[in-house]
Amino acid sequence: VAEAVGRHTEIVNDARAFGLAELHFGAARGAVCAAGLVLGTGVGGALIVDGRLVTGRTGGAGEIGHQILQANGPVCRCGNHGCLEALARSDVFAARAGVAGVPELVSAFERGDPRAQAAAEVTAHWIAIGLANVITLINPEVVFLGGGVMLCGEILLGPIRRFLPGLTPFVDPESYRVVPGQLGPLAGALGAVAWAWECARDTARTKS
Ligand SMILES: [Zn+2]
Question: Is 0.70 topped by the overall pTM?
Fold first, then answer.
């Protein structure tokens, strides 16, 4: 890409771009400490500490979806067992309710289908456990969730908010909010813009 455009080029992971977009323009605007989760065909994440995206030494920080939550759990695409992604990605969630996908799951839930309600409860519990680990580690002020699974909205957010206080004994439950992302499918592109701006700013600072 650098050769084609003749410019310095940076790469940012899509979930980290989502996090940056929500930090600069959306649900986490102005936050000093925050965590983002993208729930879709995979589960991605982004951590923000001291107002900045945490990248780690080699860009691998923030893989909230690949925390191991169940040592003998289902195999994840990453090769480990029992990652949050393997327990909460969209097709696993839908399969729990016996439906084809997330839109069908929302319809089933709204019809009062007990399988869909049970699937939402189980999936929300796994997500809450994953988020509780993050909340315990970084004590964020806001946790924001995006991705295709968030078509479910309060169907998942409601039970996640209900489970969290019991899972985060070291953090005051009043100190953080759990909210949907605000930018929808635009988040990735906006986050890439934010990342380019941050990289350019840091380069300028280094030079001055
Ligand atoms: Zn994994």
Answer: yes
